[in-house]
């Protein structure tokens, strides 16, 4: 990931590694290489069910092309404009649509459509049955996260600080909401989510906001992170991970800020703990899991936020966000490995390599399958199996 200045645009992006080195401890400054993996005793395996090559994902401009599932189909896109639908279970390709756009944001699925967007802010809706184009809409800025689809709307979040609600059937704009952005932010935006008729979005200013999906009227706003320090780099507190809704609670985390649990109804805080990540958290087995900017993995008690365990054996391996799958926690890394952790104590219980390229895009869990997509477009469906 990189940083981008609002004053100078994309040309001012600064490599995240440089910033992390500047902010790290003296010990970490002396060793910037990823830690070497050590041998483990595996008790579980991630067995490949099917795989497909879909083409490259633009990692330099931080395209977050997470696949999505709807109506028994997994829909995935590459950065060159190709959108694919596969049978979720068998991997058989159902359709392929070639769009004349460089896809940067997607995929959002729901209400019988699949939606992607490009660097110029063009959103495209496709029929989930056959991939035919239904409508397009031009927004004001780049979209580098997945649209949310539900409650009759498609919600896009742009890099220039807008949330836009489009009618899911026609593509016409229903509402928009603007936010004043900091001078410097991470290159990326959180994907909004729709739950119970409410749109919940993480913002680049370190806040979570909830809007009515019908008309965009704000329901509540809550600060997750408070900018610290005098330098702009020190004050970056973006929320780039998608908020996670579980029942009446919303879980989220920011860069150089905190991990929090909030009430979905009114945004009231349940707990908050210092944290730094540009990924989503995961929830399961009574814990909230987070992979931080340094490569450590943490588990927080879901009820009070107390740290249950931490794993520091993957430092500087550029981890993906965690996924709770079956009864294990899974994170991807820069060399295409999936690391499997015990949710009770954080110990390694397995490891699987699906590619030689980085697994950066959020892992997708759907029932008994885990889907991983590497930056060079290797899409893999995996099933968890215990060793005898």
From TrEMBL:
Looking up Pfam families in the UniProt record yields: PQQ_2
The signal sequence is 1-24
Question: Which part of the chain is the Pyrrolo-quinoline quinone repeat domain?
Answer: 80-311
Q: Which UniProt keywords apply?
A: Cell outer membrane, Lipoprotein, Membrane, Palmitate, Signal
- List the SMART domains: PQQ
Q: Which InterPro entries match?
A: BamB (IPR017687), PQQ_b-propeller_rpt (IPR018391), PQQ_rpt_dom (IPR002372), Quinoprotein_ADH-like_sf (IPR011047), WD40/YVTN_repeat-like_dom_sf (IPR015943)
| Compartments where found | Cell outer membrane
Q: Predominant location of this chain?
A: membrane
How does this protein sit in the membrane? Lipid-anchor
The subunit structure is: Part of the Bam complex.
Q: HAMAP family, per this entry?
A: OM_assembly_BamB
What is this protein's function per UniProt?
Part of the outer membrane protein assembly complex, which is involved in assembly and insertion of beta-barrel proteins into the outer membrane.
What family is it from? Belongs to the BamB family.
Q: By what name is this protein known? A: Outer membrane protein assembly factor BamB
**Organism of provenance:** Microbulbifer taiwanensis
